[in-house]
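User: Predict the structure for this protein chain, please.
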Amino acid sequence: MRTNLIKNVIVANITPGALPVEIASGIGRRICGISGMILAALMMALPGAFLTVLIVSLINASGEAVLRQILFASAGVTAYIIFMLIEYARGTYAECKKNQNAKSGLFFMFLVFFLTSGKELYQIFGVDRTPVFDVSTVNILLIAFFIIFYTNGQFNKRRLFVSAVISVLYCFCVGEMELISVPGFLLVLRIMMIVLAVYGVRRNIQGKIPFSWQSFRKLAGELICWALFLVVFSLPAMVLYPDIFSFLGKGIVSALMSFGGGDAYLAVANGLFVNTGMVGYEDFYSKIVSVANALPGSILCKILSGVGYILGHQSGRSVWAGYAVALSGFACSVAASGGTFSAVNYLYERFSNLDIFQTIRRYIRPIVAGLLLSVLASMLYQNMVIASSEEWPAAVMLLFTAALCLLNVYWKRCTRIRSIFMVLFSVGISLAACNLICIM
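Assistant: Here is the predicted structure, written as structure tokens:
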């Protein structure tokens, strides 16, 4: 039993999706088969997602005066999240040192930040120009997996040169300025990346790959059950929300891209839902993220449920449309996590001779940390927007946010205290300080 638990933890850590949900589904499958797998995942994800939707719906129903206080409170939550993102980056560097790839890990972290944070940095410094790169989260992860699969973490001169040239050209094509816009060039690059990635993986396969029809049929059965789970829970939304398939598509993609732990999902969700205009910046950060970070449970499940509620509610049909789309978002997060875990568990058992799993585990976290630093810049700008709406100097809010982050650092290091109390501490100080500035 202990051996299976260790294997579940290993597979969950190299698999995108909600880690607690994946581990729960693995344990449930071991004890009660497919029914246990689905029930365990459902029960693990439900409490946090339910509370998130409930609180977000109450916030949406509040008046202007209450919403203003919520914005003041969100400034404190934002400061706490910034503190957590900095801690994540610090933890990433410490892990890279432990894995003896500190220099390359740090390089990838800041390179990703440089490539993805152009828009946010321009906004913070008041630069009214189009960023040169500002590459999307999706494209950054595509580049990352191309490099990982092609090089397998072995950066000799030839592999480094080829991967660097292709990656730079790809960034020129997909960056905000689109420095290379030759018709067909991007398609050729993507084909080259796929071919080289497959070649890299094939090169590292040692010996004969074992295959079992019984195991494959078992995997197919599990994936079909996860698909049926998603369809059944999404039926109400299919009736009440016309764009449900667009939301579910992005929800599944976001789950498949969410490597690196709970907070890492913020970068993915920001790229797929906020940057595409599907969900408003204020709705996402001031309502959904603030509530999700204050509650226990998987960030992925809570945020997808919250995004679903906002989309359904804003469709103008009824509050029940919000709950229906929230239910589909919840089902999407659970099904995508459980289905991906089943697939990767199958691959892990079949391809145990591949070093690619360890390579992914070693390098994906620095890449995600770089994406989260971009989220940090985005959240810092959100606090500046709150200051602008109250006609306060931006410098005042920047100093306040920095001071509150430092207070969280001090409190974290000097006392052992649960995260929820640190969030409440930040909210309390933020409410008091913002209201005091208003009176003055």
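The first helix runs from residue 2 to 13.
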